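Hi V.,

Quick status before I head out on leave. The structure for the redesign project is tokenized and pasted below; the design run finished overnight.
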């Protein structure tokens, strides 16, 4: 009888632990799907208001023609995954240490994604998503990548400039970059050039590949201050 009671208590406790584990996996601070401290609404914003896309531009630095457009899975998936994985593996600009396809899809493709193509092939991209849920979902975040073969051509700045207008036109009112690592020299330079407000520094925020711990800078941009008719180049 005693053994039977003990067994019943043990099984009951195991059942409690199982339910507790399931609960914590769905809590906001343990969401694998969102991969961040908050659970976000995964719906993308309506891109029909972006009537100026696709848009052809000429890069001032190289005179190369590029087309800015909405991400198309059939055209862009493999090349974008290759580009994001390469940037992650480089270990100098993003906090992730690896990037498989499932992680890529849940992280990079969860909301709105825009790409730059040259001769029909992706050369760079950025996502736009809320940085916070609910009452602060009017503030967005973005993640930029440039294909290895097309760096140092001015594509990064081209993407940043167009991101501001696109984010505003998607209905966001502010942009906040949480972790621009000190090793991300290109993004630091562009943020400062374009007038982002540098609002903070997080000491030793990232353990970067082959470099140890580095600080991260935080930037904010008031999207409501943009000229309504401005057409970024």
């Amino acid at each position: 009888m005693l053994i039977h009671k003990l067994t019943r208590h043990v099984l009951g406790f195991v059942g409690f632990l199982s339910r507790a584990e399931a609960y914590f996996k769905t809590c906001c601070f343990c969401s694998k799907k969102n991969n961040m401290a908050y659970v976000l609404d995964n719906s993308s914003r309506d891109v029909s208001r972006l009537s100026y896309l696709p848009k052809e531009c000429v890069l001032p630095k190289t005179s190369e023609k590029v087309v800015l457009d909405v991400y198309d899975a059939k055209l862009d998936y493999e090349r974008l995954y290759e580009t994001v994985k390469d940037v992650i593996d480089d270990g100098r600009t993003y906090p992730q240490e690896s990037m498989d396809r499932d992680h890529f899809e849940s992280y990079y493709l969860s909301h709105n994604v825009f790409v730059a193509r040259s001769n029909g092939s992706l050369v760079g991209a950025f996502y736009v998503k809320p940085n916070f849920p609910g009452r602060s979902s009017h503030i967005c975040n973005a993640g930029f990548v440039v294909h290895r073969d097309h760096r140092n051509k001015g594509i990064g700045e081209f993407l940043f400039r167009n991101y501001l207008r696109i984010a505003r036109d998607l209905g966001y009112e502010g942009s906040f970059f949480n972790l621009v690592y000190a090793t991300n020299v290109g993004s630091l330079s562009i943020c400062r050039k374009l007038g982002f407000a540098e609002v903070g520094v997080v000491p030793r925020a990232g353990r970067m590949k082959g470099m140890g711990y580095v600080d991260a800078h935080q930037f904010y941009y008031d999207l409501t201050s943009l000229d309504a008719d401005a057409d970024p180049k």
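Above is the designed sequence. The beta strands are 55-58, 65-70, 112-118, 121-130, 139-146, 174-181, 197-208, 212-222.

G. will cover questions while I'm gone.

Best,
W.
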